[in-house]
From TrEMBL:
Entry GO MF terms: DNA binding
Pfam families referenced in this protein's UniProt entry, alphabetically: GerE, Response_reg
Domain HTH luxR-type: 142-212
Protein name: DNA-binding NarL/FixJ family response regulator
Keywords: DNA-binding, Phosphoprotein, Transcription, Transcription regulation
Record-listed 4-aspartylphosphate modification sites: D52
Species lineage: Bacteria, Bacillati, Actinomycetota, Actinomycetes, Streptosporangiales
GO terms, biological process: phosphorelay signal transduction system; regulation of DNA-templated transcription
Domain Response regulatory: 2-122
Source organism of the structure: Streptosporangium saharense
Cited InterPro entries: CheY-like_superfamily, NreC/VraR/RcsB-like_REC, Sig_transdc_resp-reg_C-effctor, Sig_transdc_resp-reg_receiver, Tscrpt_reg_LuxR_C, WalR-like, WH-like_DNA-bd_sf
Amino acid sequence: MRIVIAEDSVLLREGLATLLNAAGHRVVACVGDAEQLLDAVRTHEPDLSIVDVRMPPTHSDEGIKAARTLRRENPDAHILVLSQIVSGREAADLISSGNGGIGYLLKDRVGNVEDFLAALETVAGGGREVIDPHVVRQLLRRRSCIEQLTPRETEVLALMAEGKTNTAIAAELVISDAAVAKHINRVFAKLGLSDNDLVHKRVQAVLTYLRR
């Protein structure tokens, strides 16, 4: 299997390369940022790309953005994302970007070499998605939260998904702007959205609704 590794940690990057080469695979490129990842994949057309979520320059979501770009360019591109943290949002974004051949694992899973290599084979084979169990649990929790919304809160969220402002929603539902704001805050609370999310809460709420 021909593999590209995109990981800004030199220690982990070289460790992965050593592990994969020892397992009989061929690492065709090791890179440390998203731009190099895009160039490497376009040049080498690997069987699989292993991508870190957070890479330079901001160490936020450059890796996941690059992965989505690769899937837009080639929906059949096989990508295994490695993340330090659990993020159901990022997993859902990537899963919806093409046909199978996607994996999303926490980095500590690499320590179980046999399972890690098996996950690589599954993703590279273009089969079902390989998602870390911790991420799956978060996705299920977020989906169940949608079901906890009241009919009015669901109406408000649906209108938000249409791109309507609070004032437009108030006019549509014949309620006050203050009532709309209260409903929206309750939606945020039930979906577990906080100001620490990398994506604006309103956008994240809409994405959660659309992936229902």
